[in-house]
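Methods, example record. To illustrate the input and output format used throughout this study, we show the complete record for Rubisco LSMT substrate-binding domain-containing protein. The sequence lines were provided to the predictor; the line carrying structure tokens was produced by it.
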Amino acid sequence: MAHSVDLTCLHSKCIPPPPAVLPRVSALPLRLAASLRSNRRRQRPSLCSAASFGSETLVSKEKGSGVASSKREEKEGDDLKSWMHENGLPPCKVVLKEKPSHDKKLRAIHYVAASEDLQAGDVAFSVPNSLVVTLERVLGNETIAELLTTNKLSELACLALYLMYEKKQGKQSFWYPYIKELDRQRGRGQLAVESPLLWSENELDYLTGSPTKAEVLQRAEGIKREYDELDTVWFMAGSLFQQYPYDIPTDAFSFEIFKQAFVAIQSCVVHLQKVSLARRFALVPLGPPLLAYSSKCKAMLSAVDGAVELVVDRPYKAGDPIVVWCGPQPNSKLLLNYGFVDEDNPYDRIIIEASLNTEDPQYQDKRMVAQRNGKLSKQVFQVYAGKEKEAVSDMLPYLRLGYVSDASEMETVISSQGPVCPVSPCMERAVLDQLADYFRGRLTGYPTSLSEDESILMDHNVSPKKRVATQLVRLEKKMLNACLQAVDDLINRLPDVAVSPCPAPYAPLLK
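The corresponding predicted structure is encoded as:
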């Protein structure tokens, strides 16, 4: 999730300055790097075991902790906000409340609620920059450009690693109250469901048929590649995290711990607008995942002078959860990044990839015509919920181009302006048949039908992960069915619905 959330900070007080940046260390020869690693291991035993870390990861499992008393839960919520007030948070109009987790083995989750009645335009809270974690704080200005240009470590990985090392300091860390809150949330959004990146293989099967399943696996592979590069970046970046007297990253943390921390940070990170590169990605106490999400909300966390603030876009009664906009993201991204699906998401969409056949003797001419009409030889079409007919209409000229085979027809297409119009009834039937077969094929890839999905969602005992996965695939199927209906309607409007489709030796490819 890229959050389109803006944060602002006030005057910093009682906050230690960001760690000093040590002089840049030039790229080390591999032999020297290995020697340094060996020396560091001999100097002291590893301090990074799970036991000394206090829990498995930045996001602790907390199994069996669901019996915590309500007084203790309330006090911990107060701890975060009290810590913020002690360190520069001005009086605000929100309070931390809690609601039970779907998983009884996990503790309740906190959420930000209005502490008084609010009107649209009110500032709910303003978090000082001194309480916001950014790469500027983590790395210092002198190394930020170097790190980002290595193309080996993302901002999320860097922020996750920073808080993992901070957590090792326990209560000595300035960020201890915030880290404790992140541990409690475990990367769960306001539906209390983790990102599919932390689901088991069996749980991922709930997403069978959805492109999201492959996307989850690809994202997990990307996180593993970043983990494998941690040591290289550690040695090459010089000042990166050298203020911490611990072993190098892969000695300090296992991949599973790193992945869980990465996912937790992913669910919290805010994309600030109109700020420097070093402050673009930010972790803001009182921000996500403590804020609820709404695809139709217009309120965003915004960077202002010295702070990150939230101006609400609607009235609230005292006790109401505060909601923010999560950016124009489809439900697949919302689930992957935040563990939830918005049933009323105007940005929800599915993707269809079409490409001209490169074996077509007229491929170059068709590519030129496609580019003239704003399309590529490999074109991605986005089908938005409720706008399936428009998406099908947008695809047809591109697909017709792929079906043109006669040289004289191609000359007509080249000389004409605008999108490719129907050439003949049989060609139009071929194009529509290919589209219909494509949509039916995607629908058959799901193991359940729409009616079965409805039954699953009506079951109050279904697991939260299965519920949210079913919500996602159900919405995808609705869009695919709407596309198929639009194609069938066009077939029925052909002059002669019995016409046989034209042969298409170089039909465009759909996936």
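Annotations derived from this record:
The chain is about 45% helix and 10% strand.
The CA atoms of residues 110 and 511 lie 41 Å apart.
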